[in-house]
């Protein structure tokens, strides 16, 4: 009881699913070798040895991702190629990236950024985003990306919670999302705007500066004084990623420099990246995938990262795969479903023969999509599972390993996972401080991980109790329900909480409810994820109105617009008016009941529902 689980046929029903495993001979000997052998022999200490480190036991992600190559054999290899619609492609070699991130680090230091300070971007995929991310790390500060499709409210809240000191953004986002709330952000000292200056409209206030000016001055300062990358300790904070929970404010997952050991090892084993490989990750760097595998992991491997600032467009995507001769492609189920909609024939109009490995993450990958990959690309899609909190891939279908369509794959070497028996609330059950690890290959439980992998989050910023609650009896609890079959393959079953997954992005229902509650007509809101064939789920809100308000189509539209304006892309797409919302006796809106009703499922245990008088 407790949760509405959208059982997946292949996941919960036991057996190994109807579809046979797909075993193809890889086009290149996979770096992981044989998974079973690697699992026995691999240690994180060994992976640390694949990196260089800094004198005195220091470790800095940016050194491993950029400087090590930029001042070594890979200096002239292209590190990042930036594609943009209607604009020429630009690229930076590892040597250029090493130098320009030095300049950026100096710029941030000259703006007063010190070790541990937070620096945010609110930018599309662009050179400025890469430079800020890596320059921040070089300066020993903490990089925190924000999703550019967020509206004003999520942006304001994250800047506030993060105590962010410098924000790099563009003039449109600044004007619409930041300027109006600037007086509520006392920690935000400087905003750097990347597209000012061109038309002589350089921002004039001291706190809003033009990127070009800042970089020009930093470049001179670098020539005068030089720059040395900050010797961060392995356990020093490096990255801050906001993620959504079922209640309360967004959680700021803090990652440390040591995470780079996991970024690197997983980029090798799961993405199979070697120096010079042409690699495209479609994730937005505003979310964790875009940082771990759009920036850090592939660069530590010396790969060439392709990045495109344009939104999804099937023909454009196939053209990029063809023209850029992409070898490794990391994307998401929603994107694959959008490609599938256009038919396999479209894929066959392009020469995709460079592709060697296709990988997916973020939400359940339908077995149909795995098989479609076989037709469209000649390669099965390889699913991977991880979370903001895990920082890096934890479960994966590895190259060279038979793919079981519908399974997330097997644990990363060096990582121990367990499926824990559930208690009455649907989460891992704790009896006398202990949990029970299930060994029945058909049993569904909460997926848990033994702490000790290097990219494990080390805190929820400012919320140590919330952090402590994520661990029980020596396990990190993921909040996902899964099954572990007899051969060590994990099958995703559902979430154990109310968090919504839309197009691969986690959305906290509480955040959406709070924003809608600010509309004067609204009395109460309950938000659920409604299944959607393309996005997995969309956000649907159930709204009761204040006493004198009457439901109408125009009010519904007004609320949709209100939500869009406040929340941006995480706003509800559907709104339904209700007379009453179901509550628990303690007064909380019962989202699971709203969801069960929406889906026409049994309402389950109603013992905690408040009885209407
Ligand atoms: C949640 C984490 C993965 C990094 C980006 C998203 C869901 C993730 C899969 C998968 C089924 C998946 C889980 C997880 N999820 N990968 N392969 N199959 N579900 O990170 O925003 O923290 O989301 O995404 O529910 O807990 P995130």
TrEMBL record:
Its EC number is 6.2.1.1. Residues 1-11 have a biased composition (Basic and acidic residues). GO terms for biological process: acetyl-CoA biosynthetic process. GO terms for molecular function: acetate-CoA ligase activity; ATP binding. NCBIfam families: PRK04319.1. PANTHER family: ACETYL-COENZYME A SYNTHETASE, ACETYL-COENZYME A SYNTHETASE 1. This is acetate--CoA ligase. The lineage of its organism: Bacteria, Bacillati, Actinomycetota, Actinomycetes, Micrococcales.
